[in-house]
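User: Structure with PBG, C-alpha cells only please.
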Amino acid sequence: MNEFFRGRRLRRTPALRALIRENEVRPQDLIMPYFVVETDDASFKKPIASMPGQFQLGPKALEETVAKAVDQGLMSVLLFGIPKVKDEKASQAYADEGVVQEAVRRLKDRFPELVVVTDVCLCEYTSHGHCGLLRGEEILNDPTVELLAKAALSHARAGADIVAPSDMMDGRVAAIRDTLDENGFTDIPIMSYAVKYASAFYGPFRDAAESAPAFGDRKTHQMDPANRREALREAEADAAEGADILMVKPGLPYLDILRDLSDSFDLPVAVYNVSGEYSMVKAAAANGWIDEKRIVLETLTAFKRAGADLILTYHAEDALGWLDK
Ligand code: PBG
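Assistant:
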C-alpha cells in the first residue's frame, strides 16, 4: 500500500538532507564589489549611508579591506571608480592613471591570484551622470561605444582579469572584443551585463558611486522590467558579439530571466544581487525583523537554483564567513 509520497523520509536528519541537496553556494562563486575613490588620503574610508556595511575606499583602504576578505577566502572582486574630476567626455574612465586602473595595479601586485573584474561604464565619470556622450538630452550610442572600448583596454593594460561592460549601449561587446584583440589582449574575457533592466533597485548604488543622472533616466538603454523575450535577444546579441559570461541584473526580482538564460545558453551565467536588494535586507535585519544570515544564504542559494554560475553580491564578505567550508 503506497498511497502517498513520504517526502519527509529524506528530510529526517541533517546528514540525509545534505546527501540529497541539489544546489550549493561555493566561495569561488562569489564576486565582491568595491567602490574605490581617487583621493590624496589613501586610507580614506567613508561609510555609504544607503548601504550599511559598505564603504567608499581610498586605494590603501581598498587594499587592506581586500586583504581581510582574501584571508576569509574571497577569490574575486569587482571594482567601481569614483574619480576626482568628472567631465562631459568621461576622460577619467579611460585614463591610464585613472582611479580604477591604479587600483587594479595595486591589487594585482599584492594579490596576483585574485580575479579582478572591472566595471566598464561612463556614468561614474561623466559630469551629468549619464552612461554615454550626450547630444542635447540624447545618449549617443556609437561614439560612446568607442570610449567604452578605450576604457576596457585601459583596464586590461592595468592588469584586469575580466572586463564587465554595464552600460547597455548596442554593439559594445563587439567593439571591446576587437579593441582588446588588436592590442594583444585576446585572453581577457568579457563578462557582459547582457540583460540589465532599468531598475529602481540601483538606487543606493548611485549614492555609493555618485553616478545619479542629472536629468532623465536610463530607460532608453536599459531594459523594460516588463519584458522577458527581449532578454533572450539581448543575450543572443552579446553572445554573438563575443561575450564570455552573460549577466542578469538585478537578481532576486528577475530569477525567471536567470533561469531562461541558463537554459538557453551554454555560456556561464552571472547574476548581480544589486544595491537595493542588499540595502533592503540590511534595513530589515537592523530592525530585527529578519535573520540576516539565513536570508542571505537562502537568497544566494536561490540564485544557484535558478541557474547562476557566479554571483556578484555585497553580501560576499559576510557570506564567506557563513558558508560551510
Ligand atoms: C553602471 C552600473 C550600475 C550598477 C552597476 N553598474 C548603476 C546603473 O546602471 O545605474 C548598479 C549596481 C547596484 O545597484 O548594485 N556603472
